[in-house]
Amino acid sequence: MSVKYVPVIWNRTKLAYDAVVLATVGAYLGIYLYVAPQFQTVTMPIDWDIYKAQAFGTCVFFLLTFILCIGPMARLDKRFLPLLYNRRHLGVITCVLAYFHVDNILGWYNAFSPINRYVSVFIVNTSFDRFLGFPFEILGVLALLILTILAVTSHDFWLHFLKPTLWKFLHMGIYLAYALIVAHVALGALQSAAGPFMTTAVGASVALVAALHLLVARKEHLFDTQESPMDDSGTWMDAGDPTEVPDKRARIISITDDERVAIFRNGKKLSAISNVCAHQNGPLGEGKIVYGCVTCPWHGYQYRVEDGRSPPPFTEKISTYRLKLEDGRLWLNIEALPPGTYVEPVVAPILAEGS
Amino acid sequence: MAKKKPDPFFIGWAKKPPKVLQGFLFLISAVLVGAAVGVALGIGASVPDPGDARFEWGAGYQTFTGYVDAKPYPLLRLPAGEDGRDQPHAMLISGIGKRGMQQLAGPLDGQAVDAGGILLKRGDLDMLQVGGDVSLRAAENPIPNFTPAPAEHLGKWRLSGEICDGKCYTGAMRPGVGLAHKACANLCIIGGIPPVFVTTTPLMGSQFFLLADENGEPLSSEVQDWVALLISLEGEVERRDDLMIFKVNLDSAKQL
Hints:
Chain A has helices at 12-35, 48-76, 81-85, 87-106, 117-123, 136-152, 156-162, 164-171, 173-187, 189-192, 196-224, and strands spanning 236-240, 250-256, 259-266, 269-274, 288-290, 293-295, 302-304, 320-321, 323-326, 329-333, 346-347. By secondary structure, chain A is α+β, with helices and mostly antiparallel strands. Chain B is an alpha+beta fold. Chain B: The chain crosses the membrane at residues 20-45. Chain B: Keywords: Membrane, Transmembrane, Transmembrane helix.
């Protein structure tokens, strides 16, 4: 969290994160470029520029695969949440590597010709009516354009400028970029320049991304279709037994398909806030009360549980909801209050501190 | 008193991740680096063999004397012995980079020439990248008693294979075939490099055919749509010295 814009707010976690990412990328490129050739069974080596393009291109593909796996992995197992924290740096590194891939391609395949190498990408293959033979380079160009937009707008300045909903929508473009890259690889490299290992690895990567997302979608669907009884007025929803809400943690209640509420317990007090973090729509209900504030599991944004406001000097605020306790059961008023509205917590004497 | 169950919670801006997560994060980091090593080794070590296509830089600048055929694409017709072969040889020629030799070869069509440059080789195939001092010029000392043999007509055939550019396939790039190389091949063909047809099975011992249209002229730009695909083509085959020429109608092309 920050109240001013700086290029990167470095902290120990980000440094460690980036160190691991750079070690992974360095290991991949180092082994690909300098060790793997010792094990090739080729009459003569592949041209260095083409080989470098393959190394960078495949690295980009696997990094993107990993990026897309982080979200669902963190939904399925909270231990993966730290991978999500600095995912933007991973995205920017991926974009930079994609430019190295392009530079090697343009400097070799598209070079040595009277036609400008940048222009040639768009004019030398126009078989748009074919499947095999389709100008797969254009797919790569579109993916690069998306990756560039995402990298440029990855800073929190753009998040605040565009507002979280639009920013999030824009950054869902990563899926389109991945689809374009899969098609780019399938219609290009896999048709001639790849060995069986790469074909298998690409197929397994796509299957992994699809399987993880389907698993999460199923989990979310099952959660959203759980029906909680309403009272006669239709405004209060049964939120269950308060003793089942763990201390400092929350129970998430689904009001509609796209609205969830997090009921937090802080000792004997219970409060309800929106489940959606104002920063990047992170699932606040999967967070924890730390230093008296609800802390988002994604990037650590904090909110006071009683009024949904970030502690000063921060200005973020989210909706709050009213709760009531009747006959030992907790009831949630499904009408969201304006963001930042103070609501007196419900005190449940039955709850013991720290239980 | 019951021991409180640990409830680790990661906060990015905190000084350290919770202790119970540190081992897991270390394990994930090790798995990531290990996977990177394994995948890079697996993919890098299993690349398909691009063949022995190469520039013969080690042989240095070479000059040849023979005749030039400008159509369908510039060829050198060399007498036996001129390049170490015991039979007359028809050698493809190209300019530097992705440029053909039509401009220089056209006015010299059918004449004795000297040609100098760097050889490209792939097995028995070769091409001369013309340049340097000699370049392509009327022969200073034509080889006496040598006239190229007329083309031998070998009938009509339907052949299966891939259209490549003659220069990358012969040695300018490894790999110089396949869809990943299509844009490069098209740039070569646009620049005047001869398109060639590399067949899946040999015809009379040859899998390498210089392409021409039905009239023996250069192919139209339509050929670019068929480059790098596995296709079949129908046309007349003729032989000039040891080089097969496949005179095709691109309307006969079928993707396989």
